[in-house]
Amino acid sequence: MDTDPEHADTTSRTTASPARAADAEARDADAKTRDADLRTRFRATLLAAGTAPGVDPEPYADRLLTAWAEPQRRYHTTDHLADVLSHLDALTAHAADPAATELAAWFHDAVYRPDRSENEERSAALAERALAELGVDPDRTAETARLVRLTVTHDPAPGDTNGEALCDADLAVLAGSPAGYAGYAAAVRAEYGFVPDEAFRAGRAAVLRQLLDLPRLFRTPYGAAHWEAPARRNLARELAALTTATGPVGPTDPKDPT
After folding, report:
1. Dist CA 131 CA 139 (whole Å)
2. 55-107: pLDDT as tens digits
3. CA-CA distances (angstroms) from residue 245 to 238, 251, 256?
4. What is the mean predicted confidence (pLDDT) over 156-165?
């Protein structure tokens, strides 16, 4: 049997390359389908929000999807947008204004730089400009911007059903399967790769304790019933790993759970 490592490596590369190419093509096809579905949904949401007749929503959808696909993003990506919208589907009946809540999901991380603290404010301002140009009612535009700003704290006031729905949908990632949660955490850690391990570990552990000390992570009945328990298990598991680790910090974000 030929044991030449150079020959073996060459054979491995030759046989693996077509598989990698096929995987890349499949991912590209999935992304195109996802983006097409998102464009359709954006158009329908604007119609529900009362956009002005004759206004073309496509340029706005294109700009938003381009923003969500910026290269500095690892977690706050188009997949995150699609996930939040999917989670909102389970909470539509809870929100007083589903259209404003969905528009807030579209804009809530439209401006995102991991090393800056004004992302939500800039995203809200973008929503105010874009929705005004689209002819959306000023009151609904203001509500959308308010909801975007609310994602700074994820702390809606009692009775704020729109805020409860948006915040629960944004935090639902915390309730994923152990593997799904690990993937989320790895992606967020990649976004914050400039944070040193020691500082990252200390900051993230403090945030996890704050979250676990809250009486409720989720405010909607659906979120409380379906997401609260698994989210707490994931957070507790991550906190235990952080506080016992001695090597490089695990994949977490020290400042923002989403």
Report:
1. 11
2. 999 999 999 999 999 999 999 999 999 999 999 999 999 999 999 999 999 99
3. 10, 12, 21
4. 97
Task: Concatenate the DSSP letters of all residues of 6-59 into one string.
Answer: HHHHHHHHHHHHHHHHHHHHHHHHHHHHHHHHHHHHHHHHHHHHTPPTT---HH
Residue 174 is predicted with a pLDDT of 97
- Residue identified by tokens 């700009």 is 63
Residue 129 CB coordination number (10 Å):
11
Residues 215-240, buried b or exposed e (16+ Cβ, 10 A)?
A: eebbbbebbeebbbebbbebbeebbe
Structure tokens at 154: 């994820």
Q: Which residue do the tokens 């995150």 mark?
A: 80
Residue 237 CA to residue 235 CA, distance in Å, equals 5
Q: Is 117 exposed, middle or buried (0-12, 13-18, 19+ CB in 10 A)?
A: exposed
Q: How many CB atoms lie within 10 A of CB 241?
A: 16
* Distance (Å, whole) CA 160 – CA 168: 12
Instruction: Give the Cα separation of 164 and 101 in Å (integer).
Output: 10
Q: How far apart are CA 242 and CA 200, in angstroms?
A: 10
- AA identity, residue 70: E
**Two tokens at 72?**
């500095």
Q: Would you give the distance in Å from CA 143 to the centre of its chain?
A: 20
Integer Cα distance of 113 and 255 in angstroms: 13
Taking alpha carbons only, the member of 182, 194, 191 closest to residue 250 is: 182
CA 196 to chain centre: 23
